[in-house]
Amino acid sequence: MKIHHGVLLAFLVTTVFFLPSFGKENPCFCKGTLLDASGMASPDVAFKIVDKKGNPHCYLRKGAGLEKWLGKWVRVEGKCCGTFEKLLIIDPVSVFGREGARRTWTGTLKPIGVSIYMQGTHVLTDPKGKIKCLLKSGDPGIQLENYLGKHVRVSGHSERTVEGNQTLVTVEGIEVIK
Questions:
Q1: Which of 119, 127, 152, 165 is deepest in the core (most CB within 10 A)?
Q2: Domain ranges of the chain
Q3: What is the pLDDT of residues 131-178, one digit of tens each?
Q4: What is the DSSP letter of 9?
Q5: Residue 35: other Cβ atoms inside 10 A
Q6: What are the CB-based long-range contacts (under 8 Å, 24+) for 76-80?
Q7: pTM exceeds 0.85
Q8: How far is residue 12's CA from residue 153's CA, in Å, rounded to a whole number?
Q9: For the chain, how far is it from start to end, CA to CA, in angstroms?
Q10: Cβ(58)–Cβ(66) under 8 Å?
């Protein structure tokens, strides 16, 4: 029996690299427009995320209140739990939309300086100097420069950064905390 080298290579790659990690819950994310996929052949699939042309990027299980995001752009973070039609199936843990949720953060306001994020003008840090979130002013009346080095509470809408897996907050309110 003659085995084609491509078939043997595909078997080895699948056996060595894919099967040992299949079923393990590895963190992953997917972004695009969220659509209903409950009519799919897989009972594990409830939603899909597609690009601007309608091509699917991944499939999602039910969870994290996804119904309210149907038809909108989202970034879903979760655990990879398999594949369907050669695309990842994600068990969603959190969902971020472009409009984000209004939240409040506290910390020390500092200039962003040189960074990999390519977004924001300032950062909010914890007492050890670790970045909690990136900031940009959402109101011309809010001058973040006036709060440099101060412990503040900021409120605004958030979204995920393009690079660096951080949160970018559009500041709509700020106050000094004593």
A1: 152
A2: 23-95, 102-176
A3: 999 999 877 888 999 999 999 999 888 877 777 778 888 898 899 998
A4: H
A5: 14
A6: 76/29, 76/30, 76/31, 76/34, 76/49, 77/27, 77/28, 77/29, 78/27, 78/28, 78/29, 79/25, 79/26, 79/27, 79/28, 80/25, 80/26, 80/27, 80/28
A7: no
A8: 54
A9: 79
A10: no
User: Distance (Å, rounded) from C-alpha 178 to C-alpha 164?
Assistant: 31
Give the residues across from 31 on adjacent strands.
75
Q: What is the DSSP string of 121-149?
A: SEEEE-TTS-EEEEEEESSTT--GGGGTT
Q: What is 23-95's CATH number, 2.40.128, 2.40.50, 2.60.40, 2.30.30?
A: 2.40.50
CB 132 within 8 A of CB 124: yes
